[in-house]
Protein: (S)-3-amino-2-methylpropionate transaminase
Amino acid sequence: MPSSEEVHKRRSAAVARGVSSVISSYVSDAGGGTLTDVDGREWIDFASGIAVTNVGNSAPRVVEAVRAQVERFTHTCFMVAPYESYVAVCEQLIELTPGSFEKRAALFNSGAEAVENAVKIARHATGRPAVIVFDHAYHGRTNLTMALTAKSMPYKHRFGPFAPEIYRVPMSYPLRDGGLSGPEAALRAIDTIEEQVGGANVAVVVIEPIQGEGGFVVPAPGFLPAIAAWAKGAGAVFVADEIQTGFCRTGSWFASEHESVEPDLVTTAKGMGGGLPIAGVVGRAELMDAVHAGGLGGTYGGNPIACAAALAAIETMRELDLNAAARGIEARMLPALERIAPEGAEVRGRGAMLAVELVKPGTIEPDSVRTVRIAKACHDAGLLVLTCGTYGNVLRFLPPLVIGERELDRGLEILAGALLHA
Ligand SMILES: *Cc1c(COP(=O)(O)O)cnc(C)c1O
Structure:
């Protein structure tokens, strides 16, 4: 196998610069909590390929299901010649998402595609144009989802013009909104919608129950239920974008459950496929079924190999009780993070979706320079961590839910060293 250095040299002549990587080592193998690079170096994995490998890399059931499916058939297109596993994945989405009402589901390839389809469905069902999104939101990189995403650099810079009829309102961000309660922050958002858009024009409100790229922002209690209640009253569709928070990541199947919110539609992807690309939209039957036959779909959506992987990943989540595992990771990591976080930093998150937001001493001024330095020190010491946040000052931790206590503790040790010295 060529060394990382050799591959990296070839890369700049072959791979577009716009596609960048966090580290410059190239992976040869990965498992449940570690990666090995082509130079034989082992990394502790606190990234899970951005909250994807919740069941670990190459989880045994996923490997077996994929192998068996590949041998039988690889693709027929569900819109041409359907197969049972697509139906079974939709049944799982219906069963696992909050809300005991009648539901339907549809499958796609990526998170962005799921969000686009949720908006299509909501607009079609309501006959209204406006889409409400929040400060710090991340919903993807396609044209519509770039417009839904808040942050300009790197996601939107010079990629416009963007889709119209998208309105951004203030989020509940306890560290940065002067300590508004959930209901107060909701009122602020709702007033903005009423004044600037008008409830009767709103097709859909799209929100991450805990924001991902935007900084692992956990809204104050009561914020999500108040926004959902407003949407219901206004006849607008409430969409929970659970692409990062879903599938056991926060210690429950979906993060909406922590606040007993029952979204009209849920978008899923990332953790759902055990590493294979698959996404879904699931929710109220009357919304989903409003769209005419042929109005939704795509060549690869719900590909049979991805469906086999998703069914195996979900089975693994049930069998190993990965919700309990995520809560166990929280119980082990949260106190450790509180102990090692620098003065003034905020430690937050749920389950195995935890973060430290770094600020300059005595202020809430973001310290992105130090954040980058700490992440780099972690990488140098063999711990794969990611940063996020509108201000680039949040270290985020997304270990696979099957990570061992030894790997977890070793990762925390490296992190403690980096926080102390970088
Ligand atoms: C990652 C992510 C997306 C986009 O998913 P892709 O599969 O990268 O298109 C959308 N919403 C949220 C909350 C995400 O974390």
